[in-house]
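Supplementary Note 3. Input sequence used for the single-chain structure prediction.
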Amino acid sequence: MTHALPASIDATSALLEAGDYLADRSLATTLFLSLKMQRPLFLEGEAGVGKTEIAKVLSTLLGRRLVRLQCYEGLDVASAVYEWNYARQMIEIRLAEAEGIQDRARVGEDVFSPKFLIERPLLQALRLYDGEPPVLLIDELDRTDEPFEAYLLEVLSDFQITIPEIGTIKAAKPPIVIITSNRTREIHDALKRRCLYHWVDYPDAKRELAILQRKVPNADKRLSREIVGFVQELRRVELFKLPGIAETIDWAQALTYLNTLALDPAVVNDTLGVLLKYQDDIARIQGSEAAAILSRVQSELAAAAP
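The predicted structure, written as discrete structure tokens, is reproduced below.
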């Protein structure tokens, strides 16, 4: 069952919160405008800060189908947009030959008709599902190359795709488009101009604690505060890859599975691989650095306790 789009910024924020996504006012505003103006939303930020999750929440709460294009190096039109079913086309040609059909133009028109077209995510996103357009997630666009970006310009500006053998296919209603990038490279201005933009940053301590309490409600309250304090301190250290909110949630779940009620240096050292994903980062934090960070966090929490 589909639902109407939110009618205000507050309604947009409430929609996200209903999906356990706690957004700041700025993100809720940009998302509301994107939905209202029917413009793609381009989200940049470090990995693990919740960019992809926005599309998933919108799909679930609005009752729209999620069409996901996971980008990678070398992504081409055949994988992202459409390709012809060559095996079926060859069978059709052989059948035409067996029936003695000599009209090549007619055979050509038949084999390049929509029934032989295999639709990939971008073409699927132009269709309606139960009368409503889907949510199109173009995930990690920065992994593709510039020629593919150029191809997207027609899709994002006019919500249409041109297939030489058939013509132009245009969306009856524009899909909701969410584009994400981890900023491993810069995306071209021509594509950004077609979108509304928002940088998804790491949450502050208060919002991260609220997110953690939503996502891992069975974690001990003291433990949750220590986890958030530790991660917040860790993000001030110069590391190759800072932990995102996804890693915070994973760490809380892991510690809960270990029946941990409070952090201590031993458990931190043993579970740093859940929080950090590069050996150099783990080696830098493990041991005395982790103990020092934990000591500061626990002292601050003790001082703030009523």
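Residues 83-114 form one domain. The chain has a mean pLDDT of 92.
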